[in-house]
Amino acid sequence: MKQMRIPLFIAWGVAILGIVLGSFFDLNISTTIASKDNTFGLLISAIGPTIGFAAVALMGGGLIAFALKGNFHVALKVLFYVLAACCYGVAIYYPGGEYFGINGFYGVAPQWVGYLIVALPEAGAVVGGYFLFKASPNKNMWIVFCSVIALLLLVLLASIPTLKDLIHRPRYRLLATTDLAFHNWWEPTKNYKELMEHYNTVSDNFKSFPSGHTAEASILLVAATFYPLADKKLEKIQLPLFIASGCVVLLVAFARILAAAHFLSDVSFGAFLTLTFTIIANEAIIRIKPLHIEEKVPANE
Q: Are 144 and 281 in contact (CB under 8 A)?
């Protein structure tokens, strides 16, 4: 929406600034504040994706509301139920593995316990989404949801994994415990397999760039940009929601640096990718009038 152009570009500029500063100071910053045993960093790293994907679960609840309350063809209603199930499943699958996986409190509990931890709050988000969107006057809001899903697929399933596999940047936690040399974000580690064998480490330690956690937290920015299209009441609190979402993204990004999992340029690029696709999608949706709530013309005009 037009009113979100400036906030989006400001956030985009902050992400670019982080990339630029990280290009010069990545190693200095991490050397000063990062530790693989930083409890605060690990805690926020574990919780962050749950909060980010709650926005996806919220969308799932909205799709269920459209299937139950909306006047749609039965084929569309089936699609809504399928997409809602996928939203909830994704909101459990991705965050659940972070609590006791290699990027969380590894070894403290079996990894499957993390899925149990996120199942209830994400279910709560689904229920919240149902009540939030059930009375939406925007009959085409489901198209907006599909656009958001496509955007997230481009960021989280296409862009982030592809760049990780192209660059194979060593994480700081590996550098801090070995004599491995520091790599800038634009320098691919072409011999990473040899280095994995030499240092007896896992492939995840060569997936520093870009930050998936920060991109996942940035889902909140996507939600704050597009979900208010469902109801004019949400538009009134859109900017505060966007600012609060930005604060969460910054917190998760900071935590990933503290936990020695990412450098400044890594987390900045994760947010940059999400914001870039969000800006493009926003410009497209601005121009598609059927995706907006119809303005009622006063009777005396």
A: no
Q: Is the pTM of this model over 0.85?
A: yes
The pLDDT assigned to 295 comes to 58
Mean pLDDT of the chain: 95
What is the token pair recorded at 54?
Answer: 């709650």
Tokens of 238: 């859109």
- 4-40 burial code (b ≥16 CB/10 A, e <16): beebbeebbebbbebbeebeeebbebbeeebebebee
Is the pLDDT assigned to residue 300 strictly greater than 60? no
- Across the range 77-104, mean pLDDT stands at 96
The span from the CA of 84 to the CA of 65, in Å, is 10
Q: Are 105 and 199 in contact (CB under 8 A)?
A: no
Q: Which 3-state string (H, E, C) describes the chain?
A: CHHHHHHHHHHHHHHHHHHHHHHHHHHHHHHHHCCCCCHHHHHHHHHHHHHHHHHHHHHHHHHHHHHHHCCCCHHHHHHHHHHHHHHHHHHHHHHHCCCCCCCCCCCCCCCHHHHHHHHHHHHHHHHHHHHHHCCCCCCCHHHHHHHHHHHHHHHHHHHHHHHHHHHCCCCHHHHCCCCCCCCCCCCCCCCHHHHHHHHCCCHHHHCCCCCHHHHHHCHHHHHHHHHHHHCHHHHCCHHHHHHHHHHHHHHHHHHHHHCCCCCHHHHHHHHHHHHHHHHHHHHHHHCCHHHCCCCCCCCCC
CA terminus-to-terminus distance, the chain:
26
Scan for tokens 């400001």, then name that residue: 10
